Sugar ABC transporter permease
Amino acid sequence: MTATASRAPRARPRPGRGVSPPGVARPGIGWAVPATLFFVLFALVPLVLVAVLSFTTWSGLGSPRFAGLGNWTKLFHDPVMIKSLWLSLLLTALGVAVQTPLSLLLGVWAAGPQRNRAVLSAVFFVPLLLSATAVSVLWRALLDPNFGVPAQARWLFGDGNLLGSRTGAIGVLVLVSTWQFTPLHALIYQGAARAVPTVLYQAAAIDGAGTVRQFFHVTLPQLRNAIITSVILMVVGGLTTFDTVLILTQGGPGTDTTITAFYMYQKAFKGFDFGAGAAIALLLVLVATLVSLVVVRVSGYDKMAGTKDGLS
């Protein structure tokens, strides 16, 4: 009698990192050509030209003249420049501190099954459809000390000139940026919250966890990658803010809201010193890159892995 040995089916190896699943072809390098060309033409080439211009003196007329490290030397000895850099970092930090909890809670709420959720979400996301210029003009009219809201509630706003003091002007800038950009980050959290597996909430409910404990022990850990992404976007956006300051405060009172991007505009387009303006722009790019890299390394974003391991 011949016995036929039974063979156990071999487990299919799971594709590792950088390995395509069986039957799925990796896209060729040609797919990256359009995006690469766009990035080179509209990002790298202008950045190189700005770097070259930062070592010259140019008023916008004639040909630039080589100035060596003159612009950079003046830059690091300019008290307004140093102050503008710290102010940019302050506004960015305040924006992250205010917008993150608001957008997180709103995004998680909008991902749920509440009644009228879609209508309320659509209304709240309206600021996201407006340009920064339109938003700034709107708030400047609302906060006008003579005809705006402060003029009708002097018992709360005093003389009503919120933009006349350093604290008031900074507070207004944080308020306006929060009103405009919180919907964007809430949208990020809404999409991430909807991707959280329902089985995790079911298991937490079986263990006796209520809504608050589920939020802190299930939702937040699952939204970690989305939080890091949102914070990086806030950092880059906060450091490069310009039009809001231009329309609302003009860098005032004095130089109390003269952030780095606005100071670059003043140097280049008002002072006709494009070499100094280019140096400020390049320094701002370096600072934004450095801060983003710090966030990436500290948060572990560079080693980001999926949050659904073990669920499949």
Remarks:
- Residues 116 and 261 are 41 Å apart (CA to CA).
- The two ends are 43 Å apart (CA to CA).
